[in-house]
Every structure is written in structure tokens, then in C-alpha cells.
Design brief:
- By secondary structure, the chain is α/β, with parallel strands linked by helices.
- The strands form 4 sheets. It has a 6-stranded mixed β-sheet with strand order 3-2-14-13-15-16, with helices on both faces.
- Helix 2 crosses helix 3 and helix 9 packs across helix 10.
- The longest helix is centred in the N-terminal third of the chain and has 17 residues.
- The termini are far apart.
């Protein structure tokens, strides 16, 4: 019970050449990140956080779309003992502030623009409102200025600090499907056990690819999209936004074995498969919960 460790050391150990995250945006651009790419990026981001004065026990938050930088930001925070909270970009500033006011983050990662359903959304004004509305915030990082933020710290070694086994790691909010969203505090241990148990139940094997259309700012997208690759040796294909036709295409092109998302997505994917004759032979499971399957 008195052991001290840091989960990031375990998550980022292993074959550095293995591709763990694949980011695909609506324009078709693809970004592949290996475990070593992530390890290097996390070291730089953690150094940048320290330069902002972030210390163990502080909260940091992300208001961002499904992009690999969210994983790097979160892992960097965990490596120095900070607690991570995330919220999606489809949420209005008032709703975001309702959550972040409960958390009190000192550092924000915010979106500047994102694509959804073929439309480009300018997030700058909303980001400004969110940053100004949280009294605890001491620093703001815009996604379009990510390289400027981490650049001065390029090459900084990854140096996770030892923490108690039950040290808090995440405050992730429920979706609000059946009531007011509630913040759920996870330790490194609780979320990790949940993810690894699911991986065993679904018989997910190292190297297999999961499609993640769920927002990585929700516990589903974050846990199965951004943590499972490092806990179970899987890979994640991040969709910037949900589109059933594109999802069917990605499943076939990349031989996706499973996904975890909302029940309407399952219905829409099944409709596309029935309409187009797509067999999706690689897809073994579609994990979903809370709302009833249509």
C-alpha cells in the first residue's frame, strides 16, 4: 500500500516503433504516432507544463476535438502528478464552464477550430470565453499553437514523478444522457483496471486496431481511445467526427476489430452496411451502454 509509482512509465514502456495512435481528420489527412513519438512528445509537454508552474495535485483541462495532442497533454499531466479533466468542443461555453468551475484547472488546452459534418467551426471566441470564465486558470494553450508551446522544451527527457497508488488521475464527466453530468474522480488504478478488464472480455489482442469516434473528452473516448493502446498494446484510429459511411470505409481499409461508442452510431453503421452491402468482416464487437440500442 505504501508503494509509489507513476503509470506513465508503464504506459509508455515497450516497443518504441509500434504505431499506437492514428489520427484521421475529415479532410482525409492521416497522422501516425509510434510509442516513441508519444514518449518524446510527452517529455516536452510535461516540461512545458512545469514551466507554467503546474505541480502534483493541480488540475489541467482540455476543451478539444479528437486529436492526438489530447493524449499527449493528458499523459504529460499524469507524469507530473496533475489531474486531467476533458470536455468536448460540441459543448457550449456555459456548459463547459459549469464543469470546469467544479474542477478549478490551472492550465487549459483549447481548440481554435475543428471540422464536424463537413463544416468548419471557429472556436477562438468560445475558447476566450471559457478561459476568462475560470478564475483558477493561469495559462492557456491553443491547439493551433501547440508547436510553439512545446518547441522550447523539445528533447526534454520524460521524468515521471513517483506517486501513491491511489493518486487521483482524472475527473471525467458523465454524458448527461439520463441526468445532469456528474464529475467522476478516477485514480490511475481504477480507470486502468476498467480498461484492461474490458480488453480481456472482448479478447482484444496486442496490435489490433480500434476505431474511436467517441469524443476523447468523454470517459469512453478517453479510456478506450487514448489509454487502451498503452495498457493493452492495441492501436487507436481517431475519427475527428462521426460519419457512418466514413466509419464503414475506415473499418474495411484498416481492418478495425472493434469500437466503443453511442448506440445511435451502432444503428447508423448497421444501416450503412445493410444499404451498401458492406460485410465489415474484421469488426468483432461494438461496445455501448447507457442509452437503449434503437
Amino acid at each position: 500500500p505504501d508503494a509509489r509509482l507513476n503509470v506513465v512509465e508503464t504506459l509508455l514502456a515497450g516497443d518504441g516503433s509500434q504505431i499506437v495512435l492514428i489520427g484521421v481528420d475529415e479532410g482525409g489527412s492521416t497522422l501516425n504516432l509510434t510509442r516513441q513519438d508519444v514518449r518524446t512528445a510527452v517529455g516536452a509537454a510535461a516540461a512545458a507544463m512545469r514551466a507554467h508552474g503546474v505541480v502534483a495535485g493541480d488540475r489541467v483541462a482540455a476543451w478539444a476535438p479528437n486529436v492526438p495532442e489530447v493524449a499527449i497533454f493528458a499523459l504529460a499531466a499524469l507524469s507530473i502528478g496533475a489531474i486531467v479533466c476533458t470536455t468536448p468542443t460540441d459543448m457550449a461555453p456555459d456548459a463547459v464552464l459549469d464543469r470546469l468551475a467544479q474542477v478549478g484547472p490551472v492550465l487549459l488546452l483549447v481548440s481554435a477550430q475543428h471540422l464536424y459534418g463537413g463544416r468548419e467551426f471557429d472556436d477562438v471566441r468560445s475558447a476566450e470565453v471559457i478561459a476568462a470564465g475560470v478564475a483558477s486558470v493561469r495559462g492557456v494553450v491553443r491547439l493551433d499553437r501547440w508547436d510553439e508551446w512545446v518547441g522550447p522544451h523539445a528533447g526534454a527527457p520524460l521524468a515521471p514523478i513517483p506517486l501513491a497508488f491511489d493518486h487521483p488521475g482524472f475527473i471525467l464527466f458523465t454524458s448527461g444522457t439520463t441526468g445532469r453530468p456528474k464529475g467522476v474522480l478516477h485514480s490511475h488504478d481504477t480507470l486502468g483496471r476498467f480498461i484492461t478488464n474490458c480488453a480481456r472480455h472482448w479478447s482484444v489482442q496486442p496490435g489490433e486496431l480500434l476505431l474511436m469516434p467517441s469524443p476523447v473528452t468523454h470517459v469512453t473516448g478517453y479510456g478506450f481511445g487514448l489509454e487502451m493502446p498503452f495498457l493493452a498494446g492495441t492501436r487507436t484510429l481517431l475519427m475527428e467526427s462521426w460519419d457512418a459511411v466514413d466509419a464503414a470505409r475506415l473499418i474495411e481499409v484498416y481492418s478495425v476489430v472493434g469500437t466503443v461508442s453511442a448506440t445511435p452510431f451502432l444503428q447508423e453503421l448497421a444501416d450503412v452496411a445493410g444499404r451498401t452491402g458492406a460485410r465489415l468482416p474484421s469488426l468483432r464487437f461494438f461496445g455501448c451502454g447507457c442509452a437503449a440500442v434503437p
